[in-house]
Amino acid sequence: MNRRNAALAATAATLAGAAALADFRSPMEVDVAQLAAEIEAGDDHISALDLGERIMKGDGDIRVLDLRTEAEFGEFHIPGARLISIAALAKETLPRDATIALYSEGGAHAAQAWVLLRLRGYRKAVVLREGVYEWVSRVVEPRLAADATAAERTEFERAAVLSRYFGGVPRTGVGRSELRTGYWTDAAQARPDARSIRRRGC
Amino acid sequence: MTAPLTETGALGSTGELVAAPLIGMAFGWCLERPGLGYAPKLAGQFYLSDLTVYKVMFSALLTAMLGAFWLDRMGLLNLSLVSMPETYVLPQALGGVLFGAGFLVAGLCPGTSCVAAASGRLDGFCVIGGMLGGVALFHAVFPWVQRFYESTALGSVTFAEMLNVSRGMGIALVTLVALGGFAIAGRIEKARS
Known about the structure:
Shape of chain B: globular
Largest interface: A-B, 25 and 32 residues
CATH topology of the largest domain in chain A: Oxidized Rhodanese, domain 1
Structural class of chain A: alpha/beta
Strand order of the largest sheet of chain B: 1-2
CATH architecture of the largest domain in chain A: 3-Layer(aba) Sandwich
Distance between the termini of chain A: 71 Å
Radius of gyration of chain A: 22 Å
Number of strands of chain B: 2
Helix content of chain B: over 70%
Strand order of the largest sheet of chain A: 1-5-4-2-3
CATH class of the largest domain in chain A: Alpha Beta
Largest sheet of chain A: 5 strands, parallel
CATH superfamily of the largest domain in chain A: Rhodanese-like domain
Structural class of chain B: mainly alpha
Oligomer: heterodimer
Number of strands of chain A: 7
Strand content of chain A: 5-15%
Strand content of chain B: under 5%
Largest sheet of chain B: 2 strands, antiparallel
Distance between the termini of chain B: 36 Å
Order of helices and strands of chain A: HHEHEHEHEHEHEHEH
Shape of chain A: elongated
Radius of gyration of chain B: 19 Å
Number of helices of chain B: 9
Order of helices and strands of chain B: HHHHEHHHEHH
């Protein structure tokens, strides 16, 4: 081995040794602070409108997973979604580069699945925060109040396009009390029963 | 090869069109310099008489691996933007065997066949023709082999993830194997010359 090759080998060995020391965390270990920061920043969820637009555009980089029961899935599910149980998700091989959108009846089950996927190293998992309720109320049956603000009209126009695409019925001119609320609204109204809404879905 | 310049849009579409042939030519030049456009030299790999291919390829791998890791650590490269191909164990193992057989028969691989053709070697043109023919044939029979093609999928898994060690430890292991391999390759070449 000549001197130049020896110097190159020593450089590579030094850089590799330093890499092992700098990054000693096992892939199964999770940076809890990073997870907390993602949740705090809202990076852990996707809105129903964003999800709907990606499905409508035929985005091949998104996988939608439904964590409810088989009966609930059979009754109604987000177009393109695949039914999967938490137990199956623990072993399932999913594309690492794809956005994996998780939803359940409410949000708890999907949030648990999100943690599970993050533990398994899937960095692009997201949760539909209010699950099926959010999908139905914001995408399938969006409503616009008679006294809607400009911002509400803008969002409704966006939702109406999706609603028609997914076979829903956008409604205009409804009273404030008929508007559905969630984390996306400021109104402190009681949440309607998601189950009754879901059964009227597409 | 242009990642992450393409992913970040740093070059713009015109810049990418200019960069692609320049990078391609630089790659070809790097292959030509150690003589990898010459089929007998490449075939020597399989007879353990000339291990230049192993040394060149593993040197490139080490450079890219260490460079990408440290650039990412320094915040100059976002590795999450770099696309990683998915692993399909059996189809890729079979593909590897077919690729190796073609490599042995032709004495050239896809990159070096372009280098050979650019140097005016007839065998380079023949290999490129065979390669394009193979691509067309694969396209024609794809519906029949699709099931096998998509079987035994592992997703975009890395070597370190498979071993359940940190990325840094995975890098150290690959480097160790490569440096050990260089030393062994040197001895084999010396013994055979």
